[in-house]
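Anyone else keep sequences and structure tokens together like this?

Example one:
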Amino acid sequence: MTAELPGEGAAIARCPHCEAPVEGPEDRFCCHGCETAYHLLQDMGLGEWYAKRESPGARPETSDHAWNAVPVQRTPRGDCTTLAIDGLRCTSCTWVVERVLERTEGVQAAQVSYATGRAKVTWDPEVVDLERLASRIAAIGYAPRPVDAPAPPDPLFTNLAVAVFGTANLMLLTAAIYASWLDGMEPRFMVLFRWGALALATPIATWSAEPFWRGAFAGIRERRIGMDVPIALAVGVLYVHGLVQTLRGAEAYLDSLGMLVTLLLVGRILESRGRRDTADAAAAIASRLPRTARRRTVDGVEEVSPSDLAPGDLLELGPGTEIAADATLTEGALQVQTSMLTGETAPRTLAVGDDLLAGSVVLEGTGAARVVRAGENTTAMRMAEAVREAIDRPTVDNPANDLAPTFTAATIAVAALAGAAWSWAVSIPVGVEVAVAVLVVACPCALGLAVPLGVSAGLGALARRGVLLRDGDALLRLGEIDTVAIDKTGTLTFGEPTVLVADDAVLRVAAGLERASGHPIARAITREAVRRRIPLPMPQELQETAGVGVEGVLDGHRYALRSGGAGRVELLADGVVTGSIELGDRPREDAVQAMAALKAADLGVTVLSGDVSEATERLAHEVGVDAFHGSLLPHDKAAWIGQHGRVLFVGDGLNDGPALGAAHVGLAMRTGAGTALGVADGIIARDGLAPLVAAVRGARATRTAIRANLRRSLVYNALAVTAAAAGLVNPLVAAILMPFSSALVIHGASRVERELSRT
């Protein structure tokens, strides 16, 4: 028995979920999977997606991944992991997947990124498991997979393969037709070749060009003129022209249609890859972190997942070890490579007390390190999250969003006028060719890419240098500042007492008396004695009195340490003052260079401090800053900032919260108080002030790159459309130029990294 095609009177409808053609009434589904997906969304209250979606739903398919083997991170809210989601065609797909996850019982949080094609999910393992969550995603037509599982081939490659095959054969047929102009050809072969060319061009114009048709219809349905509209018009005009010419027995030039679609698909694939490479900067940081860690226990050393580490754990380190958490070196000396996080190619030598960042690699040496931050709290993961959130939840006001639709409408009008003028002046085929060239060569997408790509590149470049910004708006505002106000204690300085002046003999006795004390002054004295390699003596009859000082017997004398006034400690021997130690808050090693760099960037620099004016003045002059204000209360700092325009304020203390909130941009040191970190627009996640200078330079480079991209896009489009309308650009050249303009924008966005690498 043979299957029969439907008769002419058979009703043809579309599947309510995936819009595949089906026989029967409007509510008939093409398969059980689509019916299940449709009712699932309706039952969850997400039926509105069908009205707002930009593309049809994907047909559900089964998944064979081993979900119980996917590594998860245990957090206070539950298990957490990141999944790759294939099949996200537009932002409405992102919306529906995110809502389905959020409304699944047991899910604590879900965030789906269209830019990276990934979903971050946190769930209660007592209520739901990862396999159930994956099945919910698959049930509505999207394909979840572990992030380390190989991705399926881009469906555009299939469209391109058909276009390349068809175009290659089209060119063979049309080459024979063109050759017949010289030597002639029998009419029957000419008819065969012309209809053969039309047969080859049909799947190219319909199936291969389907992404452009789908995008154009989606935009028209939403009353939005997108970049796919002029492309679809160009393909449609060329195909209809070729069909009419074939029916008339005239030259159809369908090889131009095949080359046009092929080149446009190549451009779309390259552009998509460039955008994804930019957006995947955050995922690359996280994916390069180690999967295991060696943790010391009372029984020896055990190998654990980084998600099992907690602050206070002791890590065993050796050559080749990848650091799995932010930690402080407690034993040994190491040489480490930190290029993944800091961009520094030269290895760093670390001693006891130095910080280690997750993602660093031990090159030489052995030792142990105490975990300070683990899991999602590590600097690397916070860097990745900061960039990812900025890409996934962009808050940047992009003027191109309003300009691109207007430009596209103007392009269509110019194409129509130019085509009509050339048709009247020369011939209809020439007019059609000019109109197609205008439609193809215009590239409003280059305008739309300029701001988001520039911001993404800037956020990634600064994150690699230890500056984590909250969003793209903060980055653009940072490029507008004209003044830098900087806190003293804990920002310009280390925020703890340091020995400034002391004789070795006095320091030896003082360090012996203070060796067992945990007071900040005691730590400063013993730290300086160790730095000078002074052996610490062991006193007798040691006694410490809170608020008074410490005393003991050493070398046959009774010594005592007492306060000698602001910033000074006196040493008494048998009740007589025999020496003193000058203490102060030492500026950071790179403070002088950082302040000089900020001033060289034509920025006004002012020190704002709650410390006494004398100490503030001394520190300001020491680091090369002329303007300073001391003895300021928190609201005084905020008031000063409010009177001085676009100010970048950098602070760390609890009292810096009002100033950080009042500033045009506020940056907090990573060691700062929780309130300061919460109010700030960003965090300086590395020690020192070099990241501050990098932040200013990077923000300015980002603004410059964005402006250059916008200018470049406008100039390109103006010249290209004008040239095409004048008949100087044919459709094939236009198809080459169109993706080239987007490639220029992607290249321009990388200027931020290049600029920072040169400084």
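And example two:
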Amino acid sequence: MERSTIVRVHEGLHARPATRFVKLAKGFESEVELVKDGKAVSAKSSVKLMLLAVKENQEVTVRANGADAIEAIEALIGYLENPRAGLDDEGEAGEGGPETAAAAPEAAPLAAAPTEGTPKLQGVAASEGVAIGPAFAHFPPEIEGPGRHLQASEIEGELERFRGAVASVQARMDRTLAENNLSAGDRGIVAALRDIAADDSLTGEVERLIKGGDDAISAVIAAASTIAADFSAVDDPYLNARADDVHAVGRQICLVLLGQDEVSLETIPQGAILIADDIGAWDLARAPLKRIGGVVCGHGGATSHIAIIARSHGIPAVLGLGRRVDDLRGAKVVAIDGHTGHVIVDPDEATRADFMRRVDAAAREHGGLKVFKSVTPTRADGTVIEVAANIGSLEEIEAAQEAGAMGVGLFRTELLFMRHMHLPSEDMQAETYSALARAFAPHSVIVRTLDIGGDKPIAGIEFPEEENPFLGWRGIRMCLDRPDIFKRQLRALLRAAVHGNIKVMLPMVSEIAEVTRTRALVDECAAELKAEGVPHASFDLGVMIETPAAVLIAPALAKEVAFFSIGTNDLTQYIMAADRLNPTVAKLNDVTNPAVMSAIELTAKAGVAAGIMVGMCGEAAGRPDLIPAFIGMGLTELSMSPASIQRAKKTIAAMAPER
């Protein structure tokens, strides 16, 4: 059996989504293949899957042959059509894929430094920030195979030795994955490396070479080099970077075969700059990252796992120095600029002073923002401005609380639906919303009802083929047409309201009837829960202002709801009639365009006149340059990513006149 589909996985089947896809495929007895452009590979091999270089929006075919072929195809097609597949536990950050890294310059030769007399090296700017500290050289000896030809009687024993080494590496990685101090992003990277270690593409090639007479170490080095070369040949910088992962896994297997341990990073001093030709992602993920001041590598680029780990932990990094990294072997002090990709070896006094000033300034800015964690910002008239968080899962609660979020201004419930291969039950939803309400009480939590459409489908809901799903059957339109799904969510929200200040927001509203029909369903659900003796409470009902229609009827809408929340991302797209995912019209997707700002102001005026709360949950809510204008329009709630909260609070505090 076979079935074709368009891949919706964000950025395609890069490392983590490929790993999850393989795990799903291995759960079926059937033989399963993925076909792209006439080339078919096993869906149970992450290496082969990544080398197929499946990108988002490409067409592929899933083939299955076996007793559970129908179930396998349905599950795998559902995965491929899920934009968040493989990314559900990274907290919107972490391992990521190509989307986490911008294009970076190639390594260049020695260049003149801004400070006279101090040379600098130019590498790839892989993780922002500046650092200066003692150099910690990490240059483990290169492993070379003995090149010994096996006798026929030795082959079986060498195969067993190799298999034992692979099992040992996997066990080590499993222990690393079990450690509680590993971040979600780092956990995803280690899981992807573990998958490579067990992949038939690597183990099968090694066993073939051993059966041909090669010793295990030589076979591992040769097989890893062959697969790494395949990754390097793909026209994709992210997949090119996976070559380093294959070499790193091969090295770990060889070390076990040699009975050796990798040179430890445990002794790195506080604030030291880690210098290496290459660092395995597994080794870096296990290192004392809080002690590392910066990273400099000969290998790697902005899309490598080393860069991704460094960025997720706020460690400045410059990679891709090539052989020039050897110039740092004997360095005592190293300064790096992760913005420009500059590395300065043993800087002179003037350069040291300049870097220390920049490091101190960055620390002061970061530390200065921390004081705003517990600040309650107000307007000049004393009105509190609620600075809340946009989140999509319970795993993000801690980051929001640490930032000082005054509640949640947008909880994206679609992620709860997307992370399961079936529609979540009422109990499952009620448990999630209740946990959210308890975590932020007494602050409010605004939960957006299911906001999906043909562009981001979920298992359990069949969407029609649409020319433009952004203008189609999505958001509140779909929910009202599927009361069996919508009522389950509304009942769960009514139950969760017992545990905190739950508010409910409707997406994609374009007419008042959508609000009145929803209210009728809420009343129906409340009556059912009362009859069943299930504890529940009422909640405020509001709308997300993201369509031009909602802006134009805002005065009438304001009489029907308890609050507005302006979604600037989609509002800008619809006002400007410019697809925000289309780079050719990207310049039109500007929230500061007079047309968009006028729409925001019209909405705010209507809400203020009706005496309801007006907030914003689009990305613009966290922009310091726009916050004064939004507050001036009458907005009293701004919701944004946790990383922007403290800076937003500082901006608002600076607006209030001294008393």
